[in-house]
């Protein structure tokens, strides 16, 4: 699925865009499932907006923005279980992480048209720190994504910096790390952007008339243990490639 040149690019830059990992039928099935989850959530007591709070945008602008960020989407629809274990996904992950690959969690990130919230620049590390930093995010694009509708931007090579001090635990100082500092990663529906959880990344507001629907799955080497018991999810630990060398009894967190 990927070449040695692409693998080298990932290790040097901390990210890799893989084109056409999912076909159009698979993308359409995930779009339908995503929209249905939002609809079901809207009819429940669990609906909310996950817009990041902070001083990275003026307060009057921030309160107008919306982000749907529901976790563990593979427990809401089987289409996502198939996606996160897809042979193409496994083929890439086994070259970037190693022969043994485990799911940490999944979530959907939906920026609605014209008011889709921004993500200030940050590392994912503070949310779920691990000892060996094998954690990789796979951002599955369900829509064509560009700067107008808030595509992801990364700062190449920053995975080599190690963990960096964040404002609180959430994002980097926006004056020092504005989104404009990042390299835009425009993508087409069906493409997947892989990036290390130490790679600085973020995205701007969706100012377009188009949605920006992404599903993001975090993967790790099962021998890369968490340094803090945070962000524990029910069903965490599904094996996508290889086996888990550490035998343990798995029990639900909820």
From TrEMBL:
<dbReference type="GO" id="GO:0051213">
    <property type="term" value="F:dioxygenase activity"/>
</dbReference>
<protein>
    <submittedName>
        <fullName>Phytanoyl-CoA dioxygenase family protein</fullName>
    </submittedName>
</protein>
<dbReference type="Pfam" id="PF05721">
    <property type="entry name" value="PhyH"/>
</dbReference>
<keyword id="KW-0223">Dioxygenase</keyword>
<keyword id="KW-0560">Oxidoreductase</keyword>
<dbReference type="InterPro" id="IPR008775">
    <property type="entry name" value="Phytyl_CoA_dOase-like"/>
</dbReference>
């Amino acid at each position: 699925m990927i070449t040695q040149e692409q693998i080298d690019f990932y290790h040097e830059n901390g990210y890799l865009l893989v084109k056409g990992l999912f076909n159009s039928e698979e993308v359409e099935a995930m779009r339908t499932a995503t929209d249905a989850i939002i609809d079901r959530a809207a009819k429940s007591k669990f609906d909310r907006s996950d817009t990041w709070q902070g001083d990275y945008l003026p307060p009057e602008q921030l309160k107008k923005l919306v982000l749907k960020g529901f976790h563990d989407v593979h427990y809401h629809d089987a289409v996502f279980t198939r996606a996160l274990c897809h042979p193409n996904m496994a083929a890439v992950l086994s070259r970037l992480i190693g022969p043994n690959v485990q799911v940490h969690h999944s979530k959907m990130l939906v920026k609605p048209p014209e008011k889709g919230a921004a993500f200030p620049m940050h590392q994912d590390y503070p949310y779920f720190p691990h000892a060996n930093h094998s954690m990789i995010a796979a951002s599955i694009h369900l829509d064509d994504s560009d700067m107008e509708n808030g595509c992801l931007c990364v700062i190449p090579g920053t995975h080599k910096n190690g963990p960096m001090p964040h404002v609180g635990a959430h994002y980097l100082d926006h004056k020092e790390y504005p989104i404009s500092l990042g390299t835009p990663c425009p993508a087409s529906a069906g493409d997947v952007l892989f990036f290390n959880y130490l790679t600085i990344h973020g995205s701007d507001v969706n100012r377009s008339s188009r949605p920006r629907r992404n599903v993001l799955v975090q993967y790790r080497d099962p021998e890369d243990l968490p340094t803090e018991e945070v962000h524990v999810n029910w069903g965490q630990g599904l094996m996508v490639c290889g086996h888990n060398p550490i035998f343990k009894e798995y029990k639900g967190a909820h």
